[in-house]
Structures are given as structure tokens and as C-alpha cells.
Design the sequence.
């Protein structure tokens, strides 16, 4: 073919690909693997020793092979704060290499308290001071491929025992491509194929991929450790069932099921009605974690802890591969626990099941805030008990005791975790911050935030200074790191780092309110001053403040993931889309004059060609404040909020959207067709879309005294 | 009539807004996202343009996109899939429109214009020339890599074009890559390196590219691999020059300087030849230029001096970001049958600005004991001059941010050009960039001819000329005696002009070093917080933030360590293939 002819052919092809039929054809060829790149990627050789162990790079120090990590950033990082690791040379102490995810890394306590240090102290207390050491190779955000690589590299350190504490991260982090929002076209095509089985199809696809990944990882680890004769201990995680809630909306349900679900959900929330909750379950088929949480709450209120536990476990399982693509809170699911148990059985690993351990320790079926700071991270007591279970396994494998020990027998002999009151208080305050950012509860969020703030003050009253700094930073018109509050906090014993949500550019309304409530209760009058600062920096701009912009979202996680946070590899949207019938924003004002709202919004298109019309209710601090019209096209509407409805400082402005009118089957079919073209799609309804929500003082308005 | 111009999805996405034909706002997305050369949908720039224009999304009459996705796809199909690329996302030419409809939420008419036509329009419609010859040169648009045209009124007539694979832009980028710099970023480094070398590889360069009839030229494709390869050049190119490619960040030798010089000479030769031919074809006295190669200021200077054209207008955001200006102008012309209003582009202060009161709030929250000069501009200028005259590097943040790659006195780093150690100091402590790269001067327009061989305004730093100053200006004088001046007019940049005036009064030198307010690898600062981040992470001595002045001693010592830790870019969990899982993601698990 001549070059000119080839160009003509390409022009013609491009025209065809610009049509839905042409693109569908191309995507079908791609899905059938007929458009594969002929050049397979070159195989990558395995690294030659010495290779890095995690972030510890091999160096020669004083003539010895030494693994040295870079200094952590002043705001912390995800690895243990141990500068150097060296290969073991003598028989004693016995060396335990400890691996895992953020739970294992002591999230919110590190570097002051880590499970590895606690385990080491326990082993030494029982086995002898010089007989054990623990190398901490746990890291936040650990996933199976890096875990396997780190275990392999750790063999250079000549460990005697390996302890693995993983399983909470086995969700979207392990299978990011199983999402209708995955950036890869190939992943979307696979997702579309999985959807042929219905909305349960992608969850099955993800579970299957996870199973393969986990089996491969453990087979590799078993091969490596068996080759050098090192025993492996698996800690099977437990999660917070009582205090962690997962609110996600259901995917499109058949017929008008979506509207019915939301109506029922609202009623069920108000009345805690078991019948309503069961109806919800019937409608969503058990795929929606919010329904399970309702059931769990209702059962618990009735005193039926067994049923509450069953529902809470189902909630965790339902949340694992969210079609909404919120990155749900990492919690080990039933499937993850089974994979771990199966790996232990298949490869002869020792194991300790923390579900059994915690239940025996607390006597409760519903693990709660006593052992958990949040969804899966442990309190110092939780770390103590979990490590006792690990210590028992390690001691039994070590052959250094005359007879096997059980964790129950061991626990009274173990020293309590050495954590300072300041570190304890900082971790608890961190729990409040992290919970404020990550919890989408079915019930109210305030009580659990206040619990952690109170608990922090109980641990060390001096943490009040960190709370005030946190409030200061959140009120500031700039990133927290630039504030004077950051400088003060940095020099204090209550240093807040990245793990404590320091890098957070949203207004953090729930946290501000909880901190103010708790401090006021403790006799520290802060509310007025915080309101003043909020107004100073976030009050109404004379030209208007756009409340639809990220800093002002009351619940940032309600913005659809992946747009919920800013990522370098994903484009954002210019609009806010509400996945719930209500969406709330932070309105900051001094309440001395009325506020004019200018809402530019639209309702989701029905695809029927008509232009739907609806009323959007507006509420301020929970009270109705009026309604405006909206259609499927952008409509600008004005509403005046009387100053008497407002309070100085933070006000919660809520938009209440009309119910979606689309049929669930048609909406899901539409989504699947998009995915088949390689285009991302929503599997759930959008209730309303906001381009801007401008709040401003009305022209010529007077300030009242 | 409200028209939004948009360029995106290759590098440096941007938006602009034309209101009744007047350019009222324009900005690159990278300034907001803080991701250098950000190619993503320009969400923040879009919202900024509407806000600045005082309009809502429903008030837009049209969105104009800067290239034809279908034609681009035809070229991509012809070139074949990139090696190793298996995802085939690029097969869907509907992606840009879908992003505009769904990502921006735009519902109205969407007009699409050809890439080089957008470049041509961006130059002609903002030149103020009633008619002009138009030359656009870049790596590639859809098919065209170079176009020649003639424009008048609302029409731009294309006379001839060069199609891929023959491309002066890709020639330059290929050698940029061979010389160890990043493609689409390091081209101006090669230009800066060239004067250090000798043109001893002209024969080799002429093997790579040969000129042809009319506007044509050809690359010898045996030396290139940019169509499908993982790198820009084939193995034949290093063989031709007899040296392996330079690894990134490695030592720059005489060889690299000579290759850069030879490349620059050949580029200038060809551009001059084609400019002469274009003049012959059009018979017009004025030339407009755009496209990434039009940012080669050395070539621009030669075209102006040595071609028959009498006037040259280079659109200041000549790269792809500026394509949005042309698309918007074309849409305006199509919809109104009128060229855009507003006459020649006199400045590019089209981005966001911050009031002194907003900055006061920020400084209070930061606890910085900044000096407050609100209502005392003359004293502020004298305080800034105190520091400049004392050899300090001063960050200068004032008014609306510039569009385009050049800092022009709104987001600038300033210094005394007479200081022989200033170039090294700026490079070492502040810019953290290669030592060989020259800095540009700003000069009061009224004094420009006293210091530079320049007989016309050069407000956008888009041409070089010889330094003829009676003063020694080592910090802005390149090794070949040239400089790339910005002439500052008090009508468009009153405070900056007043600063130059004050510096001139104090020192006898109405010239300042003016380099962009950023550190290596980061976009130019946009907001006051960005300016503080930049100062905190670099060796800037003082910062003028609108009416406030901050000395380095006022900054907390801890910022140097803290700020870099804060600004690590966030990547989603989806980015695992490129990055270990979400190292910087605040979803700790």
C-alpha cells in the first residue's frame, strides 16, 4: 500500500471510529483480545542481591552489608523509624521479621508505639532479654505484590521466624482495575463483561482476582521460607464491628426500586424499624452495606448481639468492592479471612485468629472502640492483646520454652505497652480526625468523634493544645503546613503528622464541631473564637463564595470517588454530583445579615428526551429554608436565607433533591453500554448536580447588631 | 457572546474566555493543579475563566476546542500504536467531547478547529495586524507540523503545509532527548546550551533534515523513531554523531554544546529560508508566528532581523496552551463574522489575582511578621529596591497571573543583573536548574534601546538581541552577548514599571533579572500560598506579596523540610502500575 493510500485508509477508519458503531466494533475486537500489541514486554530480571529491603537500601557501613533507609519526612512516612538493618550473624537473639499493613505498622501510634516493638518487649519478657529481636518491616498501604517482594528481600537479614499480619487491605487496593471508574479501557471492558452477570458480577471478578493474588503470594512465601527453613506465623485480622459503619447508596435497583429504597431508608433511619430494614434488604438483595448496618443497629438496640454481629459482618463483606467506587474503609472480609486460614492450612503456617482472641479477651461478640481506633487500626490494648497472640505462636515455634504457651496464659505475664500519655492522646485525637474523614455513618457521626476527643483529653489533658492548633489550622485560609498552628504543634509532644490527617484541605466541619463541643464541655470556651476565625477566613466574599468547591463540602467523601480527592493521574470534574438525596455544604457567615444563595444546578437526565422539572429543597441547620426549581439543563436559581436561620460560624446548608425517575434496568443497561465502549459509568443514580452554589451578602444588605 | 477556548489532553491544557470578542481570562491548568505541563481536562482553569468573566456555565454561547480529534486519530492510526501501549484508549476520538460535556458539565454548542489553524488564529487575531503572513511550527497537530498562511479580517488562508513525519518540532525534540533533556520540556535548555558550542556538526544535522521546495523540508527517517518507538531517535542517530545519548543529569560536555549549537543553526537556517519564501508568496510586511517552535526566541530574533518581514508578532503562549486562544477567536469569527475585538494583545495578565486583604488573612494565619505596606506603594518599592540593590533575590507577586511560559512581572523572581555572581546564585539556590541556562532581563520600555539592540517593544520576551548596555549586565548576558529582554510599559504593568524606575533611580540601572517564580520541576506559582511554598523551599531572600514584604528571616526554619513533604503529588489507587500503591494518598490502610 502506498503511503498516500494508507493515509486515506486511516482517515476513513478514524471517521468510522468516531461513530458509536465503529467504536463498538473496535472495543469488541479489543475485548476479544484481537488487538493485542504484538510486542510483549521484555521480561524483567529478578533483582540481584544485595537488593533493597522495602525502603532500606543496601550499603556498606564499616565494611559490613547494612540496609539503610532514608530519613522520614518531618510529617512522617509509612515505614518503621529504624535507620539501619543488618544481617543477623549470631544464633541469638532469635530474629522475628514482622510484616503487614497499617495495623501492623501501628497506624496513629507510630513511631511512638508499634506492634513490632510491643511484640519484641513481650518476647523478651517471657523468653529472656537477649533472646529475641523483632525487625519491623510492616508498612502502611502494603499490598500482596510488595509484601511478597519484601519477604523475599528480608531473607538477606537471616530471620528465624516470619510474622505476617495482613488482610485488611484486600479490597479495591488489591484489585483497583475492578471498578467502573478504572482509567484503563481494558479494565472497563472486563468490568462490562462481568456486569453481564448483574451487579454481583464485578464483585465476583474482584474476589476471584484477589483469590489468585493471595494464593500466588502465599505459595511464593511458602516456597521461599521452606527453602531456608523458617516458620511463618499468620495473624488473621479482626475488625471493628460495633463502631464502624459503612454508608453507601445502592446501585440502580430494578424498576423504581431506587426511589423506594431511599424512601424506606429515610424512614428506617428515623424509626429504626426492622420491617423497613428487611424491606430494604429485599430491595437491594444484600449488596448494600448501609442496609446491613441498619439491621445491625436495630438488632443491637433489641439486645440481639448475635444478630447484630451477623449483620455487621455482612456489612463488611458488602462494602468490599463498592460499585460507587468510594474506597471503603479497609476491613478484612470473610473471604479475606478464609484465604488466610486456607493459606495457613495449605502451607503449614502457624496462625492466630484475632477474632477468637478478641472475643475471648473482651467477652463481646462485637469488637468495638476498646480495641479499635477506627475500622481496623488497634488501640494500645488491642495491640497488646494481638501481639500476645503472636508472641505465643513465636515462642512455641522457637523451642525456647519447655512447654507450649497459650496467649491467655501469657497475657498476665506481659508488660503493658510502653506508650506515653502524650502518644496515647495523640493517637486518640488522630482517631477522631481520621474517623471524621473516613467514616460515612448510618447514624450520627458526632458521638464517636466526641468520644475520641474526650478519650484523648483523658489520656493527657495537654493534648488540648494540639486540638486548638488543629482548629486554628482548619480555620486558616491556606494549607495547614503554612500555619503558625503547625509550627506550634511541631514543637509540642503531640505532633500531628500525615497519618493524623494533617494534610487535609477541606473545612472539616464535623471535626470542628466535635472539638468545640468537647472543649466547651471541659470548660474551655472556644466556640465563639472559632466562629470568629472561620468568618474571618471563610466568611462570605463580597463577590460570593462558591460552596460547591471542595473545601466547603460538608462530607467530602460524598463526592464520588475518584473525584473525592485530587489525584495526579485522574481528571477531576468541574461539578459536584450528589450520590444521595441530600447533599450538604459549609456556609460560614457572621449571621448578622441575610445571605443570598445562587444555585446553578441540574437534575440527572432521564434520557427520554423530555426536560424534567423538579423542586430542590434547601435547608439550613436542618430547618427548611425554601425551595428552588431545577431542570435537566443548568438552571440558575436565587434564594434568600433569613439571618435568623443562621448562626455565627459554621452552618450546614443542605440541598434536598427530588427522587430519580429513571428505571433501574434502563440505567444499568446504559451504564453497561458505556463500559462496553470503554467509557467509565455510574452504576448508581446521581440525584442532582451542582455547578456552583454561590453564597453572598445581598446587595445593599444591612448588618444587624 | 461568551466563548470559551480550550486546549487539553496532550500537554499544558488551558482555557480562555472571550466576552464579546475581548479576551478577559486565560490560564493554564498546571498553575492550579501544580502538576507541571498538566495535560488533563482543565477543570480549574475553566472555572476560573467563568468566575473571572462573571458568568455561569449556562451563559456560555460556545466552547471552542483547539484540534480535531478525528483527524488526530487518523494520524495516530497511520503512525501505529505506540510500542508497549496496549490500552488503546486513544482509539476513541469522542474522548475530548465527552470530557467537556461530562467533566465540565457543558451543554451548549461545541466547535472544533484544526490544531495549526488554532495556532495561526492565536497569533493573527491577537497581533493587531490588519493582515499578515502566518507561520506555525510545532511537533505535530493532527497531520500538519508546519503551516504557512495568509490572514486578513476573519479569514486565515492556508498556503502550504508540511505533514508528519517531517517536523522541525520533532527534530528539535529528538535532539533534546538525545542530549539528555526531557522532551516537551527541555527544548529551551538546548537553545540555551547552543551558544556555548561550535557548529561543528552541521553536516550531520543536514543529514537529519534537508530543505525542499517552497515550504517543504524532510527528515531522514532512518535516524528517528518517534512514530512508534519508546524513544525519539533510532540507533542510527548516535552512530551518526559518534557518541551515545547523554544520560539525564550527567555531565554536559563540549560535544553536547556543539550538537546543540549545530541543531540551533540548522533550525534557524530552515526557518529563515521558509520565512523568506512565505514573504515572497504573500508579499505582506508582517508575520505572525505560533506553535511550540515559535518559542525559540533566538530563531525569532533572526527572522525579524534577517527576513524581509518588518514586524513579527509571536503569540506569547505559543505552545499548545495558547491554542485555546486561537480556537476561541475562530469560534468568535465563525459565529459573529467579526474578528475578536480588543486590538493587539498588549499583555497576558489574564490569570487570577488576590487582594491585599486576602493576603493579609493568609499571613495572619501563617503567623508571618510581614511588613505591611498597604496604601504605601512608594515605600514598598523602596524596600524592594533596598533588597535588590543589596544583592538579594526577590520574589515578586503582583496582580493577575501571566498566561504562557514567561514570567512578566506578575509572578517573577527578580535580582540585580549587574551582580557577576547572581546567575550562579540564582541557579544554585533558587531555580535549582542547569548552570548554563541564561536569565532574561526586564527593562523599562523607555530605556530599552540604551541597553539592548532593540528598536521596538518586546513585552513578551520572545526574541533575543545583543546587549549594548554601557553597564556590565553579566546576569542577563548570554555567552554570545545576547539577551532576551522584556520591555515593560507602565500602562500595562504600572507597579512593575515603577519598581524598575525606582531600581534605576537608586542604581542607575533600569534593568532587572526577571525569571519565572518557580523552582525546577514545578509550574510557575499561582496563588499566594504557592509563593510561600516556593520561597520556603528555595533560597529566595525576600518576597513581595502584593502590599506585603517578607524577608527570609521571617520564615520558620522548619519550612525547608516540611514543605516538600507536604507537596508530594497524590496519586490514586489506580496508579499502582506506575507507582507503588498510593504512597502519598491520605487513605491509610
Sequence:
Amino acid at each position: 500500500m502506498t503511503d498516500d493510500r494508507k493515509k486515506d485508509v486511516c482517515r476513513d477508519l478514524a471517521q468510522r471510529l468516531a461513530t458509536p458503531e465503529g467504536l463498538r466494533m473496535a472495543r469488541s475486537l479489543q475485548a476479544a483480545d484481537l488487538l493485542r500489541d504484538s510486542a510483549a514486554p521484555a521480561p524483567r530480571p529478578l533483582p540481584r542481591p544485595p537488593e533493597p529491603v522495602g525502603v532500606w537500601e543496601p550499603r556498606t557501613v564499616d565494611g559490613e552489608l547494612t540496609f539503610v533507609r532514608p530519613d522520614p519526612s518531618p510529617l512522617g512516612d509509612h515505614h518503621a523509624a529504624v535507620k539501619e538493618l543488618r544481617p543477623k550473624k549470631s544464633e541469638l537473639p532469635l530474629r522475628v521479621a514482622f510484616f503487614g499493613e497499617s495495623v501492623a505498622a501501628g497506624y496513629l501510634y507510630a513511631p511512638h508505639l508499634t506492634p513490632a516493638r510491643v511484640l519484641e518487649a513481650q518476647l523478651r519478657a517471657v523468653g529472656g532479654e537477649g533472646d529475641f529481636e523483632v525487625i519491623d518491616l510492616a508498612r502502611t498501604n502494603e499490598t500482596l505484590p510488595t509484601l511478597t517482594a519484601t519477604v523475599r528481600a528480608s531473607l538477606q537479614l537471616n530471620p528465624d521466624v516470619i510474622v505476617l499480619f495482613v488482610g485488611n487491605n484486600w479490597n479495591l487496593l488489591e484489585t483497583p482495575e475492578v471498578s467502573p471508574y478504572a482509567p484503563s479501557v481494558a479494565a472497563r471492558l472486563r468490568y462490562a463483561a462481568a456486569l453481564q452477570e448483574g451487579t454481583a458480577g464485578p464483585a465476583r471478578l474482584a474476589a476471584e482476582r484477589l483469590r489468585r493474588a493471595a494464593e500466588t503470594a502465599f505459595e511464593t512465601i511458602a516456597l521461599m521460607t521452606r527453602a531456608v527453613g523458617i516458620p511463618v506465623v499468620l495473624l488473621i485480622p479482626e475488625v471493628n464491628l460495633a463502631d464502624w459503619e459503612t454508608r453507601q447508596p445502592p446501585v440502580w435497583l430494578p424498576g423504581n426500586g431506587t426511589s423506594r429504597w431511599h424512601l424506606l431508608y429515610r424512614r428506617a433511619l428515623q424509626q429504626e424499624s426492622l420491617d423497613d430494614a428487611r424491606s430494604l434488604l429485599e430491595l437491594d438483595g444484600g449488596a448494600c452495606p448501609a442496609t446491613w448496618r441498619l439491621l445491625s443497629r436495630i438488632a443491637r438496640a433489641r439486645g440481639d448481639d448475635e444478630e447484630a454481629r451477623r449483620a455487621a459482618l455482612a456489612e463488611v463483606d458488602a462494602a468490599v468492592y463498592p460499585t460507587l467506587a468510594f474506597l471503603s474503609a479497609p476491613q478484612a472480609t470473610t473471604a479475606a479471612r478464609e484465604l488466610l486460614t486456607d493459606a495457613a492450612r495449605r502451607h503449614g503456617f502457624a496462625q492466630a485468629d484475632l477474632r477468637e482472641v478478641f472475643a475471648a479477651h473482651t467477652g463481646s461478640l462485637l469488637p468495638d472502640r476498646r480495641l479499635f481506633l477506627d475500622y481496623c487500626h488497634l488501640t494500645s490494648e488491642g495491640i497488646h492483646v494481638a501481639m500476645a497472640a503472636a508472641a505465643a505462636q513465636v515462642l512455641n515455634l522457637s523451642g525456647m520454652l519447655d512447654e507450649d504457651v497459650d496467649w491467655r496464659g501469657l497475657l498476665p505475664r506481659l508488660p503493658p505497652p510502653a506508650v506515653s500519655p502524650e502518644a496515647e492522646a495523640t493517637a486518640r485525637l488522630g482517631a477522631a480526625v481520621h474517623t471524621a474523614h473516613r467514616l460515612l455513618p448510618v447514624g450520627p457521626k458526632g458521638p464517636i468523634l466526641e468520644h475520641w476527643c474526650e478519650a484523648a483529653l483523658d489520656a493527657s489533658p495537654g493534648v488540648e493544645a494540639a486540638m486548638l492548633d488543629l482548629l486554628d489550622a482548619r480555620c486558616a485560609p491556606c494549607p495547614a503546613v503554612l500555619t503558625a498552628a503547625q509550627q506550634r504543634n511541631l514543637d509540642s509532644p503531640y505532633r500531628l503528622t500525615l497519618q493524623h490527617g494533617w494534610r487535609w484541605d477541606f473545612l472539616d466541619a464535623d471535626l470542628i464541631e466535635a472539638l468545640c463541643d468537647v472543649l466547651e464541655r471541659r470548660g474551655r470556651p472556644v466556640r465563639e473564637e472559632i466562629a470568629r476565625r472561620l468568618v474571618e477566613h471563610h466568611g462570605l466574599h463580597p463577590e460570593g463564595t462558591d460552596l460547591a468547591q471542595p473545601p466547603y463540602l460538608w462530607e467530602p467523601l460524598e463526592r464520588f470517588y475518584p473525584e473525592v480527592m485530587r489525584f495526579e493521574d485522574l481528571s477531576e470534574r468541574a461539578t459536584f454530583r450528589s450520590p444521595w438525596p441530600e447533599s450538604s455544604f459549609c456556609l460560614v457567615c457572621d449571621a448578622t445579615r441575610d445571605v443570598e444563595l445562587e444555585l446553578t444546578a441540574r437534575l440527572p437526565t432521564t434520557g427520554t428526551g423530555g426536560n424534567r422539572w423538579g423542586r430542590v429543597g434547601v435547608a439550613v441547620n436542618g430547618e427548611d429554608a425554601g425551595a428552588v426549581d431545577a431542570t435537566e439543563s443548568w438552571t440558575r436559581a436565587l434564594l434568600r436565607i433569613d439571618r435568623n436561620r443562621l448562626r455565627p460560624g459554621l452552618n450546614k446548608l443542605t440541598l434536598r433533591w427530588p427522587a430519580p425517575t429513571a428505571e433501574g434496568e434502563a440505567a444499568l443497561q446504559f451504564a453497561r453500554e458505556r463500559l462496553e465502549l470503554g467509557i467509565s459509568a455510574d452504576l448508581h443514580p446521581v440525584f442532582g448536580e451542582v455547578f456552583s452554589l454561590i453564597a453572598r451578602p445581598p446587595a445593599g444588605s444591612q448588618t444587624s447588631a | 457572546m461568551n466563548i470559551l477556548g480550550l486546549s487539553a489532553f496532550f500537554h499544558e491544557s488551558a482555557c480562555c474566555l472571550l466576552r464579546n470578542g475581548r479576551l478577559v481570562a486565560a490560564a493554564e491548568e498546571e498553575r492550579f493543579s501544580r502538576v507541571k505541563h498538566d495535560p488533563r481536562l482543565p477543570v480549574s482553569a475553566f472555572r476560573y475563566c467563568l468566575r473571572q468573566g462573571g458568568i455561569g456555565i449556562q451563559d456560555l454561547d460556545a466552547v471552542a476546542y483547539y484540534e480535531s480529534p478525528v483527524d488526530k486519530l487518523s494520524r495516530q492510526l497511520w503512525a501505529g500504536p505506540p510500542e508497549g501501549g496496549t490500552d488503546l484508549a486513544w482509539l476513541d476520538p469522542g474522548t475530548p467531547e465527552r470530557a467537556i460535556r461530562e467533566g465540565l458539565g457543558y451543554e451548549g454548542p461545541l466547535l472544533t478547529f484544526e490544531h495549526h489553524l488554532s495556532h495561526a488564529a492565536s497569533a493573527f487575531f491577537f497581533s493587531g495586524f490588519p493582515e499578515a503572513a502566518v507561520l506555525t511550527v510545532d511537533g505535530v497537530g493532527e497531520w500538519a507540523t508546519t503551516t504557512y498562511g495568509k490572514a486578513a479580517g476573519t479569514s486565515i488562508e492556508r498556503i502550504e503545509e508540511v505533514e508528519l513525519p517531517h517536523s522541525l518540532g520533532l527534530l528539535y525534540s529528538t535532539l533534546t532527548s538525545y542530549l539528555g533533556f526531557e522532551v516537551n520540556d527541555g527544548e529551551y535548555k538546548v537553545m540555551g546550551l547552543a551558544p556555548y558550542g561550535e557548529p561543528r556538526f552541521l553536516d550531520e544535522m543536514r543529514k537529519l533534515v534537508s530543505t525542499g521546495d517552497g515550504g517543504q523540508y524532510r527528515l531522514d527517517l532512518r535516524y528517528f523513531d518517534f512514530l512508534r518507538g519508546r524513544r525519539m531517535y533510532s540507533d542510527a542517530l548516535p552512530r551518526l554523531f559518534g557518541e551515545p545519548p547523554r544520560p539525564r543529569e550527567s555531565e554536559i560536555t563540549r560535544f553536547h554544546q556543539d550538537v546543540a549549537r549545530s541543531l540551533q543553526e540548522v533550525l534557524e537556517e530552515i526557518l529563515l529560508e521558509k520565512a523568506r519564501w512565505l514573504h515572497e508568496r504573500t508579499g505582506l510586511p508582517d508575520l505572525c508566528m505560533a506553535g511550540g517552535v515559535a518559542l525559540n526566541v533566538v530563531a525569532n530574533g533572526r527572522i525579524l532581523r534577517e527576513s524581509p518581514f518588518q514586524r513579527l508578532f509571536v503569540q506569547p503562549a505559543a505552545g499548545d496552551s495558547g491554542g485555546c486562544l486561537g480556537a476561541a477567536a475562530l469560534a468568535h469569527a465563525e459565529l459573529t463574522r467579526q474578528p475578536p475585538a480588543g486590538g493587539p494583545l498588549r499583555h497576558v495578565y489574564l490569570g487570577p489575582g488576590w487582594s491585599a486583604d486576602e493576603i493579609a488573612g493568609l499571613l495572619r494565619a501563617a503567623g508571618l511578621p510581614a511588613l505591611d505596606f498597604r496604601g504605601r506603594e512608594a515605600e514598598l518599592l523602596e524596600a524592594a529596591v533596598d533588597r535588590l540593590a543589596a544583592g538579594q533575590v526577590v520574589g515578586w507577586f503582583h496582580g493577575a497571573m501571566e498566561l504562557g511560559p514567561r514570567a512578566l512581572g506578575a509572578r517573577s523572581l527578580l535580582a540585580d543583573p549587574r551582580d557577576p555572581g547572581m546567575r550562579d546564585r540564582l541557579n544554585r539556590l533558587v531555580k535549582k536548574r542547569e548552570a548554563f541556562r541564561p536569565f532574561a532581563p526586564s527593562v523599562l520600555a523607555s530605556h530599552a534601546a540604551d541597553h539592548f539592540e532593540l528598536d521596538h517593544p518586546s513585552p513578551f520576551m520572545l526574541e533575543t538581541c545583543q546587549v549594548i548596555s554601557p553597564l556590565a549586565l553579566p546576569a542577563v548576558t548570554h555567552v554570545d552577548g545576547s539577551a532576551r529582554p522584556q520591555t515593560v510599559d507602565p500602562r500595562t504593568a504600572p507597579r512593575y514599571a515603577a519598581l524598575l524606575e525606582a531600581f534605576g533611580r537608586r542604581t542607575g540601572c533600569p534593568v532587572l533579572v526577571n525569571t519565572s517564580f518557580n523552582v525546577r520541576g514545578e509550574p510557575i506559582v499561582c496563588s499566594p500560598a504557592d509563593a510561600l511554598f516556593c520561597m520556603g523551599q528555595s533560597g529566595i531572600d525576600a518576597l513581595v506579596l502584593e502590599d506585603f514584604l517578607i524577608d527570609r528571616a521571617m520564615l520558620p526554619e522548619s519550612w525547608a523540610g516540611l514543605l516538600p513533604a507536604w507537596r508530594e503529588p497524590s496519586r490514586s489507587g489506580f496508579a499502582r502500575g506506575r507507582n507503588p500503591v498510593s504512597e502519598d494518598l491520605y487513605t491509610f490502610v
